[in-house]
Amino acid sequence: MRAAAFAAAGALLSTVVAGGSATAAISTDGDDVVIETMQADVGIGRGQNGVSALTVAETFVARFPASGESRGMRRDVADSSGDTARLPRLISVTDGDGAERPSEVETSDGGFSMTSLAPEGLRGTQTFVFTYTVDGVVTVGDGSQAQELTWAVTGRERSSAIGEVRATFRVPEELVPSLEGQPRCLIAPEGSTKDCDLAITPGQLGAVLIEASATDLAADETMSLVVGFAPDTFTAVEDGSGATVGWVLALTGAAALGVGAGIVVMGRRRRSGASRKGPPRQS
Fold first, then answer.
1. pLDDT at 59
2. Which residue, 51, 121, 175, 189, has most beta carbons within 10 Å?
3. Which pTM value belongs to this model?
4. For the segment 114-135, what is each residue's pLDDT rounded down to a tens digit?
5. Is residue 109 within 8 Å of 229, Cβ to Cβ?
6. What is the largest CA-CA distance in the chain?
7. How far is CA 84 from CA 132, 151, 167, 282, in A?
8. What is the bridge-based pairing of β-strands 84-85 and 80-81?
9. Angle at Cα 79 formed by Cα 73 and Cα 82, nearest 5°?
10. Paired sense of beta strands 162-171 and 34-46, if any
11. Helices (H), 6-86
């Protein structure tokens, strides 16, 4: 059923979805680091040439050990899915007060890593806000069936539990008529005893908000959102085009497909492959 009806003024629809199957994972260096909360906000839009575009803002509150062994956090984003290319770009990494944290971008083996390090090490409660964009996140297909976004909110590589996860996915008014099927919130691995709460509500300016939450996720449990769109809603990123959406959605949502979080420890070895420091180049 198309979700255009969700946009009706004053309408309020909510549903609770039990955790289902999905591929798990997140890998975290620094076993003594505790991720207390994660707030993920994402906005989706149609960018240049009809390519799907996410604007991502993720806030992590983590407790670091007194030893100072752990130096920071890393976020990994897949820059392709099968034969589909994606274009991730880092905007900023800040603390809870909006002050910029040092950041570094690295590309290697089909992945895009955003790392923030404190050479002197980190201690106590720390807040990291990763803001970035990813173009081409919706699986386009051949036009014969619905297009689908599978969004791994907590990431696919992790070794740290997360106390509480909340996510808001914003669909703007112009894309609401294209929503297809019922959004789903899944907890992996299959057989997990955790539940994932999902609510669909009207937002400002005719938007639809898909809000999901879960608590006490173990190291091997991943929370994901699946959102469908009508065929031909989006186009694929052209190979080698380097196309840039050129605009950023208002930050009402975040987290991209296939992301992973990591705690970086002293002496952590850099991944092999091409790398570059500072903000990624804009094409």
1. 95
2. 51
3. 0.77
4. 889 888 889 999 999 999 999 9
5. no
6. 56
7. 19, 15, 25, 20
8. antiparallel
9. 130
10. parallel
11. none
